What we know:
The chain is an alpha+beta fold. The chain is built from eight helices and nine strands. The chain has helices spanning 3-14, 63-71, 74-79, 89-110, 118-126, 142-154, 167-174, 188-201; strands at 18-20, 27-29, 33-38, 44-46, 57-60, 114-116, 133-136, 160-162, 181-184.
Amino acid sequence: MGLAAAIRAKDEDAMLRERRCIVSGETLPEDRLVRFVVSPDGEVVPDIGAILPGRGIWVEASAKALAAALKKNLFARAAKAQVKVAADIAANVERQLVARMQADLGMARRSGQLLLGFDTVTGEIKSQSAPALLIEASDGAADGKRKVFAAAHARGLKIETIECLTSRELGVAVGRENVIHAALKSGRLQERLRFDGKRLSGFRSVPSAAPESDE
C-alpha cells in the first residue's frame, strides 16, 4: 500500500473510532477530539492527522477542554511523566486545523470537486446531482446563507454544512477574494473537511444560519 492510500485508510478508520477524553472522561467520536503526543524532549504536541508515533492523548476539540487540561495538569497525568505544554496550544490546534482544511479545499478546487459562488452552489442544489457538503463563510451575510438553505429545503435536502471558516480563510484556500459560498461533491475530501470542520467548530463560536432540524 502506498503512502497516500495508507493515509486515506487511516482517515476512514478515524471516522469510525471513538476515544476517551482525558478531561471529561467521556468516550467520543474522533471528529470531536484532538490527539496529542509527547515528543522525545517531553513537549506535548498536537497530532491533528493522528499519525505521529507514540501513545495518543485525546482531548475534546474545544478551547475550554484544553484550558481545563492545562489547569488540572491532565497531560502529565495521562502521560505519567512530567511534560511541557505551550500556553498557546489551543491557538496552535486551531491554526493547524485551518491549514489542513485550506489544503484540502485547494486540492478539491484543483480536482474539480469544489463549487464556488452563490449562483453555482444554488444551481447545483437545484440540479439532479446535489452537493454532499455546503461550506458557508462564518462572516457571510445571513440573508445569502438563508437563500442557499432555502434552495436545499425546497428539494427536501438536508445537506451537512460547515460554517467555521472566514471568507478570507476560504479565499486563501482557493486563490480568490471574499469567498462566501462553496460546496463539495461526495468523496474523500468532502469527508475529511466534514471531519475537520466539526473539530474546528469546537474552537469557534459561530452563529449558524442553517435551519433547525425537524427531527
